[in-house]
Write a structure and sequence with these properties.
Length: about 180
């Protein structure tokens, strides 16, 4: 999703997850209309799982940002993304709705691996493979998180989705 710039002509940057672009030799961004734009990686923070991209395009939508520090368990949450990538055969994103199930969740890989996510927003809005990097928004349409991961025994959504709080993502983008 796009972070806005000062003159309102479109996003300065596109924010996604670092794991989405990891290992890529080329990165591009596709709009919901199916237009593809080459993107340049400005930076990636693997620890926070945030990547910042630059796209030379005009008129792209800008997502308004909310305040993830003021989230309440039980408030509406809407996950936007492209589950299973382009397997569904088009560029139109999907939208799922649920609630904020928890805040400040810490996910640590119990198998002893290096993987850990801290202070995450938990939602029961369906987040599936391919939704990573999409926005989690509140009922006012403000981005409150970056969809990042799920907990699942079978690989699909079971109602345990996690997003990086937008206030942390904002700090990473500023850095």
């Amino acid at each position: 999703f796009g972070f806005g710039n000062a003159n309102g002509s479109g996003p300065d940057v596109i924010v996604t997850n670092a794991h989405v672009i990891a290992g890529a030799s080329r990165v591009s961004v596709m709009t919901r209309e199916g237009r593809t734009h080459p993107a340049r990686l400005l930076g990636a923070d693997e620890t926070n799982d945030i990547a910042v991209l630059k796209v030379e395009a005009r008129g792209l939508p800008v997502a308004p940002l909310g305040d993830s520090d003021s989230l309440l368990v039980g408030e509406w949450a809407i996950a936007i993304g492209n589950p299973y990538g382009f397997l569904l055969g088009n560029s139109e994103p999907s939208v799922t709705a649920g609630v904020i199930s928890g805040v400040g969740r810490n996910l640590v890989d119990r198998s002893g691996g290096p993987s850990a996510y801290f202070d995450m927003v938990q939602t029961d809005a369906s987040i599936n493979p391919g939704n990573s990097g999409g926005p989690l928004v509140n009922a006012d349409g403000e981005v409150i998180g970056v969809n990042s991961s799920i907990y699942s025994t079978g690989g699909g959504s079971i109602g345990l989705g996690f997003a990086i709080p937008i206030n942390r993502a904002r700090r990473v983008v500023d850095d």
